[in-house]
Amino acid sequence: MSLTRKMLKALGLEEDKIEQIIEAHTEATDALKNQLKDAQGGAESLAAVTEERNRLQAKLADMEAKTPDAAKVQADFDAFKAQVEAEKANAQKAALLIDALKAAGVVRESAQKALLKAVDLSAATLTEDGKLDGVDALIAPLKSEYADFFATTQQGGVPPTNPPSGGKASVGKEAFAKMSVTERAAIAAKDPQAYAALKGE
Question: Nearest-CA neighbor of 163 among 198, 116, 124, 113?
Fold first, then answer.
């Protein structure tokens, strides 16, 4: 039930008092209406903020689910770095081992590559000055198991000469022509006459 002038007159109030009461009532009513309006606007704003908050929380949760764990990323990077360093070290070891195989007499490139596969390079170590540690110990079992790949050299001097013992009949001119200088010199020293005859003097 609203407050009216008629009601106030029925209460026996004077006109100026009625006016004051009406003005006060209007001000109070307008203030309450404004507060209600502000409250309604605040409620709508709160609902919008709540909705935005919920949307951002869902987006954050989705991003966290898709973002890899920093510790896992670091572990993967460390493993990759170690693999690259190991491959680099093994390539250096392989080059040094091939040089050692060449020095040991393995001249064919295909044999070098085959022997390289028979060695566990990860077990070999490099010294501080960049040399292959224990290279002889690495090659020794290869020499034993794959001896055919290793060339051997034999010390050999000038073959002994067996000059003819006597005269012209012991060596023909054709055989004399095929003799080395050393063999001819031996004939000349032993039998000058036979040498001169063979030479055609």
Answer: 198
